[in-house]
Fold these 2 entries.
Entry 1:
Amino acid sequence: MRRHLLSLILLVGLAIPAKAQEAPADLATLVADQIEIQADSVLVAAGNVEVLQKGMRLKATRVTFDQKTDQLKIEGPIVLTDATGTRIVADQGELSSSLTDGILTGARLVLKQQLQLASNYVMRAGGRYTELGRTVASSCQICEGSQTPLWEIRASRVVHDKETRQIYFEDANLRMFGVPVAYVPRLRMPDPTLERARGWLLPSIRSTSQLGFGIMAPYFVPIGENRDLTITPYISSKDAQTLGLRYRQAFWNGYFEAEGAVSRDQIDPGTRGYLFAKGNFRLPDSFYLSFGLQMASDNSYLQDYGISSQDRLDSFIQVERVKRDRYIFAGLTHLESIRDEDTNDTQPSTLVRAIYDQRFAPPMIGGIATLRYEATGSMTTSSSTTDSNGDGNSDGQDTARGLVRLDWRRDWILAGGLVAAATGRVLGDVTFVGQDPAYPSAIERAYGVFGTELRYPMVKSDSWGGTQILQPVANFLVSKSSLPTVPDNDSLVVELDEGNLLSLDRFPGTDKIELGTRGAMGLDWTRYGQDGSEVELAFGRVVRADDLEQFTPSSGLDGTWSNWLLAMRVASWEGLTLTQRVLLDDEFDANMGEFRMNWGNNKIGLETGYYWGISDPEADRPDDVSEISFNSSWKLNDNWTSVLGIRHDFIEGRTSDANLGFVYRNECMLVDLSVSRWYSDSTSLDPTTEFGLKVQLLGFGGGAAPGPARQCRG
């Protein structure tokens, strides 16, 4: 039968008043295979009926509208969907003409195509409230041959508030695999469309050898649209009580976040705790302000409570602006070590730094120049001027430095494709030293380095469609061989790598300056594949006219001939990313090596690293280092994923830490089970084993997204 389309505008409309002509938004549309008007006031629509009204869509087999009672009698199957995607499926019912009030029997309420609530009836009131009678709620599918889902909530009455997006349960009974596990007289939970709702969040179970079995139950409090507070009590079996807080606030120009906790336990008498805070704000004229605060009551608190494994607390505040030809930075940093072997009183704890860089093209000589003004300072909390041996070296040393530096470089392309460059640097600085009689109170330095650089890039295309570049490189630099010595606080660790092979200065800071006549040579080969992959091999070394004993053996830069640098990099090749760097002496013995690999696909992810290095007391490395780390994830099937991590110290002959976990996720449940072991033993930290368990019922609020549906067994 031919379908009819009827726009009900006047009295025949679904209770549209006579002023409908003035309010076209109230018009309803009816589509059906057959439409019949009986007794001038009753409209009957049959066959594939659809009614559209103010964002509501009703599908049914037959609809009868009585204008006198302003009611719709509906025969199913019925599907009623509103503008938010909430769906009601029912057998039959009666609704007002606006589709906002009435009752449906044999109904199911489906929220966000995820959470389903099945009831003997569904009653709608005012377009806001949906009431269900005896109800079974779940987001799990029921496999064939099974009577119950993995989990379900049964209640005598359920009310869904569409405006506040809350679901209220009366006499709620939580069942797992059909077995009752918890009873709550009244329960309120957010519906799946609400991401921020006041209430209890997913609790987690944590068991450690230090604190025993414990449970954390966070409570979330939204404070307006742009800020919230999370309160997390934590109680463990070994008489430990903790109250954790987290506050977040978003502003029109940035954000602020603070978290911390206060604890009492048997590990350390008294009150323990920590406080972390951070923020970032956009200021006028393209400036950005960022800051961070880190505090802990003692060295082991962060590790004991599984908050962080870091061994240094870093608090800072800084202002920064980056433009094409100008850079401005000013920052204040406070450092505090939480390693037992460190003494904070005698280490630089407060660091101040200000930088102004101006990049420009010099007239006459051409090229690109960068002018830098820099001021730095470091202070200790100690006021001692002699060490414990009384030899005149300070236990507490303060320094301040002002520096002006000009860098310049110009490149030329010569005949045959040879690329030549002239480069140079001049600087002057003055360093003020306090609380250290081993140094003058003021030290002035003036320095210049000039040189040339040559590159000869050769390019070819290979038979696989890739592009290969072979490039020999070399440079030659001349500078003075001596400068006044200043305290070294920011150049303690330096290593030869492919990034600084041709650098003017290989020290990372400004305390030390590389001196003497020197040169470097190397060869670089790179292949760019059509698939976006890259493979690079490089080697080289540094040659000096004289050994000025500026570098330690572990750096690979000591002596007149440096170690050979061998480096490899593979990126985006069949999911593989690999970097390797090794420093070899003339006997081809490795002084230092580093290897890192990442590989993954849609099922497996691998990450591993290996580092070894010789002992070097001058670089604060009294023993050899040889350590490997391994982390992996393996998707066992659509629902199960395993994770494994391990770090092993070959010098100590023991594993430093290890962790193993399993994550199960399906359409309605998330289970995260983990066990980890930390083996380090110091005066403040004992070896610790930790067990963790999280179980989340998916389908409520803005929690974890549902995973793939379970595979039902036939």
Entry 2:
Amino acid sequence: MTYKSTARRAGLAVGLMAVVASVLPAATATATGAAPTSGPTAAAAPGWCPTAPGHRVDCGQEKRPLVAGKPRLGTVKVSYAVVRHRGSGPAKGTVAMNPGGPGETLIDKTEEITWALGDLLKDHDVLLVDPRGTGRSQRVPCGVTDAEYRFGTRAQQRAAVERCGKNLGPKAAGFTSAATADDIDAVRARLKVRKLSLYGLSYGTYLMPVYASRHPEHVRNIVLSGAYSLALDTMARPSAQAVSTTLRRVCRRSVPAACDGERAVRDLATTAARLRTAPLTIPITTDHGVYKKKFTEDKLANLLFEAASSQVGLEPQKPSLLGRLPHALNRFVKGDAAPLRELVREEGETGSDLDQAPYIAVVCNDYRRDWSKDASKAARWRQYRAALAAVRPGEHGAFSAKGFTEGTTDAGDVCIGWPGKDTPDPQPTKPALPDVPVLVLSGDLDSNTPDASGKKAAKQFRDSRFYSARNMGHVPELELSGCVVGVSSTFIRSNTPGDTSCLRSLPPIAVTPVRG
């Protein structure tokens, strides 16, 4: 559930395809080899239909009701692309992907996906659907941008959510995981595919169980990577606790020893406490303007559990945000804020002007809350504050409960002003799910959707397997050796993951040394 860069959460999100693009030119030449290149003719394909070296790509659009049962609210066009397998004969199966968000796109990343899933595409087709409101599908904007939402104070985020809901009006009900799941199934039916292998990354690990609950007869098997359950923790405690665990792990595994994990956790607690009363103001420059970001405990929390979990393990020999954190926290405690400021500035440069309706509306409609949807705003606040007060000391690790929950963009109080009238009830947390094979993957340096969340996601299914990839962050497919994708591809083909020993031997990440 990640909220990173132009992807919207769960999330975060979700980084995999954008990062693979940086190594794509060299990788593509190897992956496609001498495979014949073919594609739909210009007359048959929409102008936006992508190409994928070595593969035919078929594209189309489905006209869907914006809100089921309310034709007066109109329709929305949902776009899809099918990357066809390169082997002879019929495909052995079709894999439907979702890379997170909610609201992350797929079609514009077709070439990267083709490279990442190269081996699986020998005999499987891959279905890419841009969720309603995103990418090549029809937009339904609400007037809140990515940069505005991410860089705003918590009060500004709550106000943006409320404004988004008012601008959408009754159309807000059109953004749910159930609606997206039904869109995917409408495309499946159009393509005359009997069963799908579902592959969800980050928020996709929430969406795909929703699909499975609504269309169980069309599911062959499921892969969930960077996972969390439908009954997600409204206070984000697993993520808060994982931040400290992750700092300890990166320090303990660094070679040579670059930091002390217990000291890093103490530095984090000190930094969080100082920022509660003395925030920093940090200018953030993006392609769309300069923002003055008020860096408080909640923004520190977001940096530690979301941003720092992204891209970990992609290039382990180069210090990532996570690998630089112990040093930056230690310098801050000693009176030098420059390294921490630099990390915040770098992360902030990814802010965009993309409209956040597909993110805000889905999480505010679907995720369970600590208040009644039908209560007044004042009553919601009373219910939420009572829930926050019931949190036991220490349940948010080095952070205060208020500070960490306000660092999330999809949990805590952020949706408290979302309209209750004409919006659906939250997604059921214990729907009937099909008895199909399920593989759940996690990175053991991921604080966004940590191992604890992945294990809970696996328990939703009767026939599930959980594996954690050592030294990887959010969405472990990021590693470029092919280990993780090899495990998931084997599972999709055979319903068993095969040899998983490589998941335990991925190299530790580089860590900036803490001196003195």
